[in-house]
Amino acid sequence: MNENYETIDLTELINLIKKHLILIILVTLGFGVIAGLFTKYGIDKEYSSNTVIYVNSAGKDQDMDYNTYRLNQIIANDVAELVKRKKVIDQVITELGQEKVLDYKQVKDSLSVNSINESNFITIEVTLKDPNLAAAVANKVADLAKPEAKNMTNLESIEVFDKAEVNKNPVSPNLMLNTAIGVVLGLMISVGYVLLREFMDKTIRTSKDVERYLDLPILGELPKRESL
């Protein structure tokens, strides 16, 4: 017995999709709408604020040579690790009076500290559900980093170059991306369902189905008669 029934040619596929086009469109749009609504109303928004600090191991009036520049980069990396320490984060929470709202792990996970292109500038970025709190934490971390860094390194100066501002635009979730994912998922599921149902349906409707499912030759066909 041949296995032609396990395959479907392009023409049949196109006709099958046309036949169930309304179903495919409805399911696809439905998944997109559900994904969009869930993203907008079912997932908590997160907001990000960042501040920039500048570190310098030389005095303000001293020229910076290459060795000093490299030392500043090393110190910048040390400061980036320093502000993530529990002592600093606990002090941030206490001074902001947010002991009931924040904890060490939550702040540490929300904190991203990086040196900008291996320069003397360090960005401190905080991402939280409250935009005002995110900005407050970022600025407080920068303020507390100054004395801590001077105590533990040879820094001559560490200054806040750019204070964090409240950002009312959420950085996550991504509404457009999640909606697009929902649309693609809906399209895949609807087309997959249509194809699966077609392959599982062994009902004989045409002479072509006889050849496909029963592997029998067609000796002749009766012409269609109009109803009396």
TrEMBL record:
Pfam families membership: GNVR (PF13807), Wzz (PF02706)
Superkingdom: Bacteria
Record-linked InterPro entries: Bact_polysacc_biosynth/exp (IPR050445), GNVR (IPR032807), LPS_length_determ_N (IPR003856)
Transmembrane segments: 21-43, 175-196
PANTHER family linked: FERRIC ENTEROBACTIN TRANSPORT PROTEIN FEPE, TYROSINE-PROTEIN KINASE
Entry similarity comment: Belongs to the CpsC/CapA family.
Protein name from the UniProt record: Chainlength regulator Capsular polysaccharide biosynthesis protein
A GO MF label: protein tyrosine kinase activity
KW Magnesium (keyword) present: no
Major location category of this protein: membrane
